[in-house]
């Protein structure tokens, strides 16, 4: 197997494991022994939609960061300690230099969050359809 596919598979499996842990935690906290089938479907739909939505929103946030939409906010957060304690953190760099440094250091490869997130949302939609088909 190609190394990049192995890395992608490992990332997908680790994200799926984290999502499964979140889904399991939510489902076990809401599950009761004598639940009706409708309520079981509702709990399972909620349990799978929470990690799915979280992964998709994190992937969107990382995509926006890679596009440079959060560079000004990051500059402000690096500039605030220098305002509070001017001598402790050295001279602040200019915004243009800060943005160029961030542009060179951009990290990519968060597409696996989209993949796993949409899989979890697909499972949640399955349980949602089952929930409404019981009525």
Helix/strand class: mainly alpha
Order of helices and strands: HHHHH
Q: pLDDT below 50 for ≥5 consecutive residues: which ranges?
A: none
Taking the sheet with the most strands, its summary is:
none
- Proportion in β-strands: under 5%
Number of strands: 0
User: Roughly how much helix do the residues carry, as a percent range?
Assistant: over 70%
Shape: elongated
C-alpha end-to-end distance: 47 Å
Radius of gyration: 21 Å
Tally of helical runs: 5
Mean pLDDT: 91
Give an overview in words.
It contains five helices and no strands. The chain is mainly alpha-helical and 135 residues long. It is elongated. 79% of the residues lie in helices and 0% in strands. Helix 1 packs parallel to helix 5. The termini are far apart.
Keywords:
single chain, 135 residues, mainly alpha, 79% helix, elongated
Question: What is the compact description of this entry?
Answer:
This protein has 135 residues and is mostly helical. 79% of the residues lie in helices and 0% in strands.
List the helices and strands and how they pair.
Blueprint: H1 3-30, H2 37-67, H3 71-84, H4 95-104, H5 111-134
Helix pairs in contact: 1-2, 1-5, 2-5
